[in-house]
Amino acid sequence: MRQALSCSLGFTRINTMRTEARMKSNHSPAPQGSSEPRDQTRISYTLILAALGTYLLVGCIGLSFRDWRLVISVGAASVLLALPVWLFRSRRFHAGNLVLMVIVLATVTTIATVGQGIRDVAILAYPIVFIYVGLTSNRAMLGLCGGLTFLALLWLALGESFGLFAPMPTSPGPLNLLSLALMAVLLLVAAVAVDLMASNTRKSLAQARFENAERQAAVEALGKSTDLFSEFVDHSPLYAFIKEVTPTESRVIKASENFKDMIGIESSEMVGKTMDELFPSELAAKMTADDWSVVASGRVLELDEAMNGRNYHTIKFPISRQGKTYLAGYTTDVTERKQMEKELQEHHLHLESIVAERTKKVELLSQLTFVSLESASVGAWWINFEEDDTYHALDTTATLIGVPLSSLPDKAYRISEWVNVLRATRTSAPEYAGMVDSALEQFAGTISGKYKEYRTVYPVVLPDQPVRWIDARADVSSRDKDGKALMMTGTLIDVTKLMDVEKELKGKKIHLERLVARRTEELEQRNLDLQVVSERLSLATRAANIGVWDWNVVKDNLVWDDAMYGLYGMRREDFGGAYAAWSSAIHPEDKARTEEAIQEALRGEREYAPEFRVVWPDGSIHHLQAASLTFRTPDGKPFRMVGINLDTTARKRAETALRESEERYAQVASQSRTYTWELDSLGMYTFVSPIAEDITGYRPDELVGKMHFYDLAPGEDRDAVRTAGPTIIKNS
C-alpha cells in the first residue's frame, strides 16, 4: 500500500507538470480543421468510462463480500466522477467547478479515513479527478486541485503510518489483494491518459506557436480594416454590442460608446461584465436566457424591451469566429416611435368613433334632407349610368318637369322623358331654343367629361301653362378611367319667381343707371363750380395773407397751404407736418396759452381762435390771429380741425403806435389847462382831460363810457343838442 501511495504521489507531480504545459497551449485556439482536440477528448472519455467500469466491478465485489462501506464509497466516487463529465459535455465549466472539485476531494478523503480497503479506492480516485480538472483548461484550478490532491494523499499516508485509521488485517485477504490489483490498473490508466494529454499538448503548442505569428498579422490587418466600421458603431444612434454567452451568464466583449446614454456606464467599463452586473436582476436573467437561446439555436431574435421609462427594439443574432459562437446585436430607442404609434392608434380609434357617429348623422340628415327637399319643392335626382336610360328622383322632380309620377318603389324615371319635355319646349317656344340646346349640350358634356359639373337654367313650357324656369345643378361623384361619369347627383329648383324678379330688377337697373348718369353730370358741374369757388378763395386768402391749415387729430398729420409757410417764415421742406413742428414755432411766452386753447377746442369748451406770436427762423417776431372749426365723430370724439391763420403784425404795430400816441396825447392833455374831450359815433365820451371836473363838475371816470355829450346840456336844450349832435359829429 505504501509503495502504491508513493507511485501515486510521483505520478501526481508528473501529471501536474504535463497539465501545466497543456494549459499554456490551450490559451492559443487550435487551428480550424484540426482533429487533435477531438481525439484527445475522445480518448479521455474512453479512459473515464474504463474507470467507471472498474468502480462498478469493485462495487460488485463489495456486494459479494457484504462490505457495505466499500459499496457506498465506490458508489459515491462513481457519482462524483460522473458529475464533471456531465458539466464538460454541457459546456458548463466555470468558476463554480473549483468548488465542486474541492468538495470531491474532501468527500473522498473523508470516506477514505473510514478504513480498510476504502483508502485504496480513494487513492485511485484522485488521478481520475485530476484528469477532469485538466479538461477544464484552467491553470489556476489545475494548480489548486493538484495541491489539494497532494495534501489529501499526504493525510492518508500519515494516517496509515501512525495508525490513525482502522488497523490493516494481519494477513492480506482477497479484498485487499483485489484492491491493490485494481489500484495498479487505475494508476496505469491514469498514466496513459495523462501521457496522451501531454503528447497532444506538445503538438498543440508547436502548432499554436507556428500559427500565432500568422494570427497576429491577421488580427492587425483585421483591426485596420474594422477601424472605419468601429468608428461608425461608436457614433451611430444604434446601441451595438457583442457578448460571450454561456447558459448561466452573458458577458460583454464590445459595446458602443452611446450605451452611457442608456444605462449611465461607459462602454469601456461594460467590457467584461455580465448582465447581472449591468442591469436589474429580473431584466438581466431575461437577457441572459434570450442571449443563450440565440447562441444555442443559431436564429435571429427580435424583441421589444422597456427600461427607465424608455422603449427599445433589440435584434440579436449569432456570429462565429475561429470555431466559437458569440452573440451580436443592436438596440434602437423607439420611445418616440412607440409614443407616435400610441397617439396614432388613439387618433385612429377617435376617428373611427367620429366616423361612426357622423355616419349615423349623415343617414339621419339624408332622410331629413329628402323630407326637407320635398317640403321646399326642390327636386332631387341621381343617376347610375350602369342602368340604361334611367334616373331616380323625388316626386317634386317629376312635378317640376311635367312628367307623370313614378309608381315604382325606387322612383325610377326615363331620361328620354326629360329630353322629350325639353324638345317640346323648343318647338312650342322657339325663342327659348338656344337655352334648351345649351342645357342639353351641357348635360351631355358633363357625362362625357367635357365639363366638370352641370350648372344651367332652362325653360319648361307645358300645355296651357305659363313658362316655368328651372335651375338645374349636378355633380359627378365618380368617373371611369376614360373620364366618363358613373354616378351623378343633382337638384332642380323652380326659379320662375326669381326670373320675374330678375326681369324687374333689370328694368330698375336701367332706370338707376339713367339716374346715376344724370347725377354724375350734376356732380361734375358742381365740382366745376367748387373749383371756381376754390380758386376765388385761394385768391382771396393770398390777397389777405391768410393761411389755411388742416390737422388730422387721430394721426397727428398737419397740412399747410403755401400761405402758411410764408406766415411762419419757413420753407415747405423744413416743416415736419405734425403738431410738434407747429408748436416749436410759437413764442415761448404764448406757447402754454395757445396749446391750452387747442385743448379747450378739442374738449368742446370753445372754438380755437387765439392771438399769438411766432418766432421766425431769422429771429423776428410776428403776430397771428387763428380761427378754426373742430369736427367730431358721432360719439363726440374730435378727429379733425380745419382753420386759418391771419398775419396781424401790421395791425399790432399800428395799435401799438396808436396806443403810444394816445398815451402821449393823454399826457399832454393832462398837463394842459385846456378842456379836451373825445366822442364815439353815438356821442359817448371816450376821453376827457382831467380839467373836465373843473369845467363840468364830473370826474373823467364819471364821463368816459357813461355819459353822452348832450347829457351835460341844460334840460330845455338837451333834445335839440341830441338831435344836432350826429350832424356835428359827422361834419367834424
In one word, what is the shape?
elongated
What structural category arises from helix and sheet content? alpha+beta
C-alpha termini separation: 184 Å
Strand order of the largest sheet: 8-7-6-11-10-9
Helical percentage: 55-70%
Number of structurally distinct domains = 5
The fraction of residues assigned to DSSP E strands is 15-25%
How many H/I helical runs? 24
Number of strands: 18
Main β-sheet: number of strands, strand sense, barrel status?
6 strands, antiparallel
Using only C-alpha atoms, the radius of gyration works out to: 64 Å
Low-confidence stretches: 1-37, 114-118, 166-172
| Average predicted local confidence, pLDDT | 75
- Assembly type of the chains comes to single chain
